[in-house]
Amino acid sequence: MCGVVGIYSNEDVFRDLYQGLLAIQHRGQDSAGIITYDGLFHVKKGNGLVQDIFTAENARRLKGTIGVGHTRYPTIGGGRGEDAQPFLVNSPYGIIMAHNGNVINYSELRENIFKRYKRHLNSNNDVEVILNEFAQDLAALDTLRLTPDDIFAAVKQVYQKVKGSYSVIAYIAEQGMVAFRDPYGIKPLVYGERKNGLISSYGIASESVSLNLMNFSDIRDVLPGEAIFIDNKRKLHRKKIADGHHTPCLFEWVYFARPDTYIDGVNVYETRVNLGRMLADDIKKLGLEIDVVVPVPDSARDAAIEIARDLNLSYREALVKNRYIGRTFIMPADDERRTSVRQKLNPIASELKDKNVLIVDDSIVRGNTSKAIIKLVRKCGAKKVYFASYSPPLRHPCVYGIDMQTEDEFVARNVDEVEIANRIGADKVIYQTLDSLKKAVHMGNEQIQEYCAACFDGIYPTGDVTPEILEKIQKERKQNQLKQLKLSL
Asked: What is the C-alpha to C-alpha distance for residues 3 and 14, in angstroms, rounded to an integer?
């Protein structure tokens, strides 16, 4: 899961791109990059957080009224600087590109690109295959001025070749800015307009909050299978190119997106409040003796407040977050996650001692974070510790861009809730149902009829994820984990 931002403006865009990336820093902590254009491309990429990578000198150097930015955590590729986005090719025209998602047939495309086009890819990042396929289709055109139809034809070729999930932003030098979303709309992508004189500026981003903070308005979703093209006169063209069942990723509303974001017309905050209300109804039926409800900050707070309100229980912020530690779910290795939990959260013992505590979190993935939190709470003298997840059990690998790619990573894999509670040290574990999760999102936009819930139910909406592909992805994932471990020794 990553975050992308693109701006086509009439004034320097670095400051806006920087602010836009800060707004979606939660989507990736591994690396970040910005490329601007003023007749030349100006590049700055690096590993780490946005605020640590870009300096005042970068602000002076990254000139241009057009630019693309990216913040990343890897599903393909490791933590190398070569894997940071955006990417640049000088031919044809000069193209920069960044994406959010995961290309399932990355290895096959990479091999074909070399064999067919003699193009050498210098990274392990899957956006590089999208970029080179897109570039090759444009290179076949005998023209110096691209039309919207040329752009849309090249995007159509990408749809036919590239499998998986992807929301893409690209800029073609002196031609225009392009954005497109995979035919299933698994990853979010929005665009907006900012009036500044007679000619509008346009912004494109993974989350609406990024555009809000840059004062863009009239924010709309890029539709599944749709491409938009902003030409060199800043005229916007749209076209629905590919048909597909709209199946947005449910985990966006559970964990990844900011609460002030709208995805496909559905507000994240309202969805999490509804999830808390639904989970409270299930908890009520269990007849548990609970003294206090405690959220795992920050994403679980909205649901936890609603659970406490509906159950007429005390709500306490008894786990205090160090906001300078990143999100543990997207830490690159298990040992980093375990260490970071203790650095990230500190309990207020007086709020926990001699009480039956209900801890509320957004999900339970590997179980390491949950186990560490429960251990902290028990050390504070809690009598009983119940653990509630406002999402269903995660049991299946994600091949669409969430860092859950091997079956043995899931604490809930092939076991029931009793065994899960035993593994993480809870007196009881309570999960949201998948039907309730879908209902909570559906309440925000009744036009969405289907969802990507593959990590919960093992059903992959693109229809092309075979057991062989799953096995290959898991093998590559384990090899990458081993490689990262060797590099850290």
From this structure: 16
